[in-house]
Amino acid sequence: MKAIRGAFLDFLHDPFYRDEQEAIRYLPDGLLVMDGEKIADFGRFDELAEKYADVSTHHYANRLIMPGFVDTHVHYPQTEMIAAYGEQLLEWLEKYTFPTELKFQDKTYARSVADRFLNMLLMNGTTTAQVFTTTFPQSVDAFFEACSERNICMIAGLTGIDREGLAPAEYRDTADSFYANSKDLIERWHMKGRNKYAITPRFALGSTREQLDRCGQLKGEYPTAWVNTHMSENHKEIAQVAEAFPEASDYLNVYERAGIVGPKFTAGHAIHLSDDAFQRMSASKCSISFCPSSNLYLGSGLFMIHKAKSLETPVLVGLGTDMGAGDCFSILRVLNDAYKVAALQSQKLSVFKGLYLATLGGAKSLMLEDEIGSLDPGKYADLVVLDLSPTPALAFRAQNNPFGKDQTSEEHQCARMEHDAFGTMMLGDERSVEATYVSGQLLYRKTGTPVH
Predict the structure, then answer these.
(1) Residue 391 burial (CB < 10 Å; 0-12/13-18/19+)?
(2) Which of 1, 14, 98, 303 is 20 to 30 Å apart from 286, CA to CA?
(3) What is the largest CA-CA distance in the chain?
(4) Whole-number mean pLDDT of the chain?
(5) Residue 88's domain is classified under what CATH number?
(6) Residue 406 — very low, low, confident or very high, per pLDDT cuts 50/70/90?
(7) Do 176 and 274 fall into the same domain?
């Protein structure tokens, strides 16, 4: 048993629908006790200190401790091609993505990238992610092997694409090989340790009807598996999906007809949706991964966060870096772009709404809120320790916080934290991450190298 002391922030409710002060739980001086990989106790330091006086405690002074960040959409094989120049989605896939992902036929290479990728996530405070792999089963094995060594919660699966003309022949699979390989991988990895499997058609345009039907078959056989894909990202892509699936009423209906839309289904992007599509997604209790950095980088469009989080069509939403179309591994940088995407649509994304999406909101979107996303006892001890003034700009901004340190009431302490946390949301990156804990173990500290 061990403990950490400091200022803690997590969420009890969704601040998009509740008063923000009611939605947050902020303890200016708290104690979190870990027993093995789980949180054993959590509360105010002065209320718990005597009970745990003999427990080894690390004090993170002048830091903010939160549940680890959740990245609901990211591509580990694209780690080396981050920030590729000058193309939109379909051209970008052809020019950069498929040539890079072909390297993952080599399991040794795949494992080397998986290790690097996971270390980069930890450096950025991300402790859970939903991850795309490639069409090669060995790339999935390599990834889950690396995850198992870290006891980290990751969702991933074989990424299917079998339509001629959408990828090189040597990259494509078939409906039958996708089904057989996915079934084998599910049996080997799903719910083994903290590994979780996602049935993963890359995107509707990349799959034949036969492959999508096989996805539905797999979901029927393994109902606890996740489903992860892309949807309605780019106007050219959407038009080609309509041509490829004339029987479908829209992009979402392609997946509905395959029988894979429902809880644990995540649509990456979902930028260009009709009111009817939002309504159907809300009714089906599926989720959207909001990937603003990628959407801006590829010029895909602006996600309607206000529509997805409306009272009329509430949809579960998490944040995705979508690295490598996204140009970062940092959920903090994604929040910077999310704020701007909202502002371009005359909306405001507060720091509490943003950090909710990064933690409990992301967990709920993946149906993982019973395991991660907040600091409740019984959940996994996946934590990020944030330095709110790691750069000269943030330090100077914090120094001039309008809520001075001499104001010591909890109300003023919370207002001061809100001011500094918003600065971190807009100006933060991996330099803001002091430490990252996974399953109760310190796997990263700000020394430039992972602890693992």
Answers:
(1) middle
(2) 98
(3) 68
(4) 96
(5) 3.20.20.140
(6) low
(7) yes
Phi, psi of 179 (to 5 degrees): -65, -50
Question: Which amino acid is present at 388?
Answer: L
Whether 452 shows a pLDDT value over 60: the answer reads no
Together in a domain, 151 and 226? yes
Mean pLDDT to the nearest integer, 231-240: 97
Going by C-alpha positions, the residue among 127, 129, 120, 148 that lies closest to residue 65 is: 127
Q: Does the model's pTM come out above 0.70? A: yes
Q: What six digits make up the tokens of 376?
A: 């409740």
Name the more confident of 403 and 246. Answer: 246
Q: Do 207 and 217 reside in the same domain of the chain?
A: yes
Q: Looking at the domain assignment, is residue 196 inside a domain?
A: yes
∠ CA(211), CA(323), CA(203), 5° rounding?
Answer: 15
CB within 8 Å of 72: residues ≥ 6 apart: 129, 130, 266, 268, 287, 289, 318, 319, 320, 362, 365, 366
Question: Rounded to an integer, what distance in angstroms lies between the CA atom of residue 51 and that of residue 45?
Answer: 10
pLDDT at residue number 326: 87
